[in-house]
Structure prediction request, 365 residues.
Amino acid sequence: MKIVFVLTVALIGYTAALSGQASSRNMDFEKYDPVSTLVVPEHIVPRAKFPFIDVHNHQWDMPGGDLSVLVRDMDSLNMTVMVNLSGGSGDNIVRAARNIKTHYPQRFIVFANIEFKGIGENGWSEKTVNQLEQDVRNGANGLKIFKNLGFSVKDNEGRRVPVDDPRLDPIWKKCGELKIPVLIHTADPKSFWDEVDEHNERWMEIVTHPNRKRGADNPVPWETLIEEQHRIFRKHPGTTFIAAHFGWYANDLAKLASLLDELPNVVVEFGAVIAELGRQPQMARQFFTKYQDRILFGKDSWAPEEYKTYFRVLETADEYFPYHKKYHAFWRMYGLSLTDDILKKVYYKNALRIIPNIDKGPFPK
Ligand SMILES: [Zn+2]
Prediction:
């Protein structure tokens, strides 16, 4: 009798191993998704506590599109103003400004972009500065520089154009004169330059998006790009720069603090890096307290359902709650529980100060 029992148990164990379920020791990283057993208070925040300005958004059909769909989603989030960084230049700005003015004059701001083609040719800088001035007259309220500057922009002789190329100086200077901010995205997370192995925090992002992989010669080391960016900040103290994605120092706030201390013309926005802040609530709260006048709300990718993670990190004291993209963060979030005074600055007051022509009417004092 006893012998039969032992044999039955062994058979069950063997069958389970064959079917590869609970007893398996190996599992894909993507598949592992444990349900937390932690029981703590939860405060889902589908709508921001105060009306807010998203300074980092991309919409490509603004010249001709029906803006009412966007506005409906914005209203549900309490987003009063969306800053569309993908305004282009020339006719695109004219048409976008007209569409906004006709339908929702208080809800959208458009930034212009630079056409880098032809850089190095005679008169390129003058022509480009003139176009930017025209774009601002036509309704642009800022300049957005994409990460292609530093990565892939080449001059007329095929050479990489560094972010601090002197041929671009007249542009930065002109933005200071026009009193429009430059929102600039340079480089990418440092992990994209590191070995793609079990120690890399962005391993999953790199294997699922292989074209994001960078290297010392693809095109240059991370530090080189970041230094190029910081040099234009230093060289143009009369121009306000918004360093996109916390300047890729959201994971080293002490370093970012020293940069902000040195450069009063620089502010930051946290598009796509809220997961870095949500994993260090103590350090991040100190940073937001000290630099409460230097931080703007940005999100980047337009996915309305993802904003609630941002609101929850900023507003609540919740613990160990999920983030929405495993390839950005396989860790969980903690709320910073910022005060109302700080929230108001981050949600709208700082943007109202820095970006021209936003109607202050809808925002609390
Ligand atoms: Zn962006």
